[in-house]
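[User] Once you have settled down, look closely at the record that follows, and write a paragraph about the fold.
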Amino acid sequence: MQNFFVRNAIKSLPPLPSQFTVATENPATSESKGGIRILQLSIPFRMAYINVQQSPDGRIWTLTLENVRRFGFISIPNINRPTTVYIGSLQFPVLSLPIHFFNSPTGWIIISDDSWKSSERHPETYGPFWQIIQGPLLLVYGTAGSDLETSTRYNYAQWIANTLYYKGRYAPMVCSDAQLPPNYQDFNLVLIGGPTTNRVTDKYLPMSPVQFQNRAPIIQNIIFNTPATGIAYISPGYSSDRLVAVLAGTDEKGLFKALMLFPTSSGVTMPDYAVAGPDWGWAGSAGLLAAGFWNNAWSFSSDSGYIAASTHF
């Protein structure tokens, strides 16, 4: 049925107007318009626009951009792409696909490879947290500590798996940090427990935008070491199109709060990261010590993130 819809929708596409706009707030949830797709925003999770003005013959497109860092052309049947693009006073030929345009520190340039995806965010990893569900999922619980703590983390993993199943018929795999399947790097991972309690979290730490001091998470050199504090965040995975989510706490109460931050349905609002302090729960969002979206290089940015003033000791 999907192939039928796509085939017939393309047949009935109207011609592109001489002027049109491509807009998105999140490249992960927006496709192309007129063969143009926004791949990366200058400031994540703020609206981005590309206004297009076509020449009468459709061969020259003049673009005006706002909050766009990368965009590209994709091949769509029955839609002709331009031969020349103007971005301000800069003129570019539209070469054979795939290519994309990048607003480098020295100005707009053409990029013909995808190597940038290994270190920067792109539509498959742009978040927010819910995007961890958009792929094969493996829940990994930590086994360091007492038998009771290990059992609790196992129960947390089973709770997430069962909830995802009855809400969306999604059945992720569950395993311990000592029993990883050989192909675990092909999955989106949810790591339950910080580096002191989960061996996979500890192994993954060099790739993580959040560091830890014992069980206390660190963001932007701020240590969140208050008892009953939990953190949930997404970060880059082991391959360029995979994600890792970490649920950790300064203690077991904090870990439970991190579990409660996990969005088990698409309607739950959860950014890339959130730190739930001791008052979170009864205080709602006012109990969050930090929250926001990572920048394109997977690090904290005050343009799209927040750290409570009371945490700056």
Remarks:
- The chain has a mean pLDDT of 92.
